Amino acid sequence: MTSHPPIPARVVLLCGPSGSGKSLLAARSGLPVLRLDDFYKEGGDPTLPQVLGSTDIDWDHPRSWDADAAVTAITELCRTGRTNVPVYDISLSARTGVEGVEIGRTPLFIAEGIFAAEIVARCQEEGVLADALCLSRGPVKTFRRRFLRDLREGRKSVPFLLRRGWRLMRAERSIVARQTALGAYACDRDEAMGRLADAAAGTNTHVRGTYVRNT
């Protein structure tokens, strides 16, 4: 593994199925938050994947997301305390601007989004990973919460949201299995808050799916 000099901050990657409560947990943590959903590709990008047997774009596939840009932003935040990120409008499937994100002198921040697990290994190689967590609420609860949120925010059309919701409900267990295989630790909200507290206190490290408490 590449050796890196000490850095002033580290990141907790927070993933989980869409609607599992990632944004709410991140907000309640009191830590600075980087929204990984802002790194979606734009609707006209020719590399966007489609749902098998449909003309719908598969926004739940990792290829709909710019992992390189997300890793760059995370490492810049860890090493300098600030970075520029796109402002993304999900209802338009488009980037509408750029904004600066600053975390100040905090030793820890959260990067949350459904694709966070995809960059666990890369963040670990960069020496910036504190922990990686995968939230899971159960398929039915997640379906309800996701649909009501997306409907309230006008993210997509109702038929699209229903098709996507049904597909994700059936796939939720395999989504969690993939994210844990990539190195995220599956947990509920309370356990996640405990691990965040440990990470903020510097009493744990995360190594490819293994939780190690420092003494």
Summarize the structure in words.
There is one protein chain. The protein is α/β, with parallel strands linked by helices. The protein has one domain (10-213): 3-Layer(aba) Sandwich (Rossmann fold). Helix content is 37%, strand content 23%. The protein has helices at residues 22-29, 67-80, 120-126, 139-152, 158-181, 189-201; strands at residues 10-15, 33-35, 82-89, 94-102, 108-112, 129-135, 185-187, 204-207, 210-213. The chain has a 5-stranded parallel sheet with strand order 2-5-1-6-7, with helices on both faces. A hairpin with a 4-residue loop joins strand 3 and strand 4. The protein is globular, with a radius of gyration of 17 Å. Mean pLDDT is 86; it is low at 206-215.
Q: How would you spell out the order of helices and strands?
A: EHEHEEEHEHHEHEE
Just give the CATH class: Alpha Beta
Report the span from N to C terminus: 23 Å
The outline comes out as globular
- CATH fold-level assignment: Rossmann fold
* Mean pLDDT rating: 86
In CATH, what is the homologous superfamily?
P-loop containing nucleotide triphosphate hydrolases
Spans of 5+ residues with little confidence (pLDDT < 50)?
206-215
Strand order of the largest sheet: 2-5-1-6-7
Condensed summary:
By secondary structure, this protein is an alpha/beta fold. The chain is built from six helices and nine strands.
Secondary structure elements and pairings:
Layout: E1 10-15, H1 22-29, E2 33-35, H2 67-80, E3 82-89, E4 94-102, E5 108-112, H3 120-126, E6 129-135, H4 139-152, H5 158-181, E7 185-187, H6 189-201, E8 204-207, E9 210-213
Parallel strand pairs: 1-5, 1-6, 2-5, 6-7
Antiparallel strand pairs: 3-4, 8-9
